């Protein structure tokens, strides 16, 4: 390849890099900047003279001179390694506190074979958004848990009233219907009280649910119904919460 072609190759590569939207710089084997994208200059508010030909770790008054990062970059060419997702948290002079993700690998640039392609991604806003989302989800789970607890208490009270009513009616058929309603309400109250709102839609161990449900049913046997003890044994099967409701909707279906 003659010098003219080599020059065109280099100019083409520089033109391509300069148009990339992400902050990109290409370093030589001595970690000096050969070319940087327009996005790099704009993001870090620096001029060409402050970047071109400078050692990477001298940029921004040494802001990138991080021992661990230096060790990684110095191994890219001699050891044929790559830097993947290296996170930098730093209070930059021009940008303030930011979180940057760095990726680097060896590339061929123009007529030079030993160069490093280095990309820098600012993920500060994404991390903040993620943190805010996690906080909102935590608040939602707390509210759901409180709401379910209140609903379960109300259902427990309703179930007790229904069972008292069942003990006072004379009709066997009416008594049976009231007892069925009681058991269904106890089942729903147990689900509301014990399902973790943060695992909405996830599978729940059947044996754990049935143990809790049977304990609730046994404790609710008041009035004209004799207190009982229910022992539950089983395997490791898991079901969706809505299917568990169907399982526990009437104790006569599974006792």
UniProtKB/TrEMBL annotation:
Pfam families: HisKA_2, PAS. Gene3D superfamilies: PAS domain (3.30.450.20). One of its GO terms (molecular function) is ATP binding. One of its GO terms (biological process) is regulation of DNA-templated transcription. SUPFAM superfamilies: PYP-like sensor domain (PAS domain) (SSF55785). It is an enzyme of class 2 (transferase). The keyword Phosphoprotein applies. Coiled coil: none annotated. It catalyses: ATP + protein L-histidine = ADP + protein N-phospho-L-histidine. This is histidine kinase.
């Amino acid at each position: 390849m003659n010098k003219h072609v080599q020059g065109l190759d280099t100019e083409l590569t520089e033109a391509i890099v300069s148009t990339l939207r992400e902050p990109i710089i290409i370093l030589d084997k001595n970690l000096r900047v050969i070319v940087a994208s327009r996005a790099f200059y704009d993001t870090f508010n620096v001029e060409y003279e402050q970047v071109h030909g400078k050692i990477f770790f001298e940029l921004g008054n040494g802001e990138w001179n991080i021992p661990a990062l230096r060790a990684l970059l110095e191994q890219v060419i001699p050891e044929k390694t790559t830097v993947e997702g290296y996170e930098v948290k730093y209070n930059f002079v021009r940008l303030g506190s930011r979180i940057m993700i760095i990726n680097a690998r060896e590339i061929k640039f123009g007529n030079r074979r030993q160069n490093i392609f280095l990309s820098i991604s600012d993920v500060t806003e994404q991390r903040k958004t993620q943190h805010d989302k996690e906080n909102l989800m935590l608040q939602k789970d707390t509210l759901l848990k409180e709401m379910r607890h209140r609903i379960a208490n109300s259902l427990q009270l309703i179930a007790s009233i229904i069972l008292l009513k069942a003990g006072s009616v004379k009709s066997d058929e009416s008594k049976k219907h009231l007892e069925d309603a009681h058991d269904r309400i106890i089942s729903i109250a147990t689900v509301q009280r014990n399902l973790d709102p943060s695992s909405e839609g996830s599978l729940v161990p059947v044996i754990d649910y049935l143990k809790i449900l049977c304990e609730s049913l046994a404790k609710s046997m008041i009035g004209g119904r004799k207190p009982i003890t229910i022992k539950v044994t089983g395997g490791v099967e898991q079901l969706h919460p809505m299917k568990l409701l169907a399982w526990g909707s009437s104790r006569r279906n599974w006792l």
